[in-house]
């Protein structure tokens, strides 16, 4: 798959760090550090603009090391970049730790994974077929 990219940042293009890596790291593109207080969230620019083929989405995911060591996460879980979006990739970060976190220019702040997308056709019906699970949800099989 080919992804067109415009890089207005001071940092290298995203790249896979190992042969088996699923995602590429995204870097903060900042003029000055950002101090993120406990439970505060902010939008961090990357300086990247991408164009993907139709039928592909980019998923923005938290970096596990930042989540564990600094409490940084994405408040929306996984961010979705649609194939027709052409704006700058910006990352919403939240500080879930009790301490301030400083985000500096060039810090790896998130990862991006590309996925195929299927469009569903919705068929309105009067009822759904039975299944073993039925309407059970939210822990219905135990904790």
Write structural notes for this entry.
This protein is globular. It contains one helix and ten strands. The longest helix is centred in the middle third of the chain and has 7 residues, at 64-70. The chain has a domain at 23-116: Deoxyuridine 5'-Triphosphate Nucleotidohydrolase, Chain A (Distorted Sandwich), CATH 2.70.40. A four-stranded antiparallel sheet has the order 1-4-8-6. A four-stranded antiparallel sheet has the order 2-10-5-7, with no helix packed on it. A two-stranded antiparallel ribbon has the order 3-9. 20% of the residues are buried. The model has no long low-confidence stretch (mean pLDDT 94). By secondary structure, it is mostly beta strands.
Give the spatial strand order of the biggest sheet.
Answer: 1-4-8-6
- Over all CA atoms, what is the radius of gyration? 19 Å
Runs in which pLDDT lies below 50 for 5 or more consecutive residues are: none
The CATH class label of the domain at 23-116 is Mainly Beta
Helix content: under 10%
Number of helices: 1
Q: What structural class should be given to the helix and strand makeup?
A: mainly beta
User: Largest sheet, described in full?
Assistant: 4 strands, antiparallel
Distance between the termini: 41 Å
CATH fold topology of the domain at 23-116? Deoxyuridine 5'-Triphosphate Nucleotidohydrolase, Chain A
Please give the number of β-strands: 10
Overall geometry comes to: globular
CATH-level-4 superfamily name of the domain at 23-116: Deoxyuridine triphosphatase (dUTPase)
């Amino acid at each position: 798959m080919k992804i067109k990219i415009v890089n207005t940042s001071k940092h290298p293009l995203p790249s896979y760090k190992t042969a088996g890596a699923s995602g590429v790291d995204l870097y903060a593109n900042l003029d000055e550090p950002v101090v993120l207080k406990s439970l505060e969230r902010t939008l961090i620019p990357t300086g990247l603009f991408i164009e993907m083929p139709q039928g592909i989405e980019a998923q923005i995911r938290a970096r596990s090391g930042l989540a564990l060591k600094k409490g940084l996460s994405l408040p929306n879980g996984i961010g979705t970049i649609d194939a027709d979006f052409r704006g700058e990739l910006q990352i919403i970060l939240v500080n879930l730790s009790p301490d301030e976190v400083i985000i500096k220019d060039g810090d790896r702040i998130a990862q991006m994974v590309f996925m195929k997308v299927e469009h569903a056709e919705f068929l309105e019906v009067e009822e759904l077929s039975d299944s073993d699970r039925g309407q059970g949800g939210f822990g219905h099989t135990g904790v």
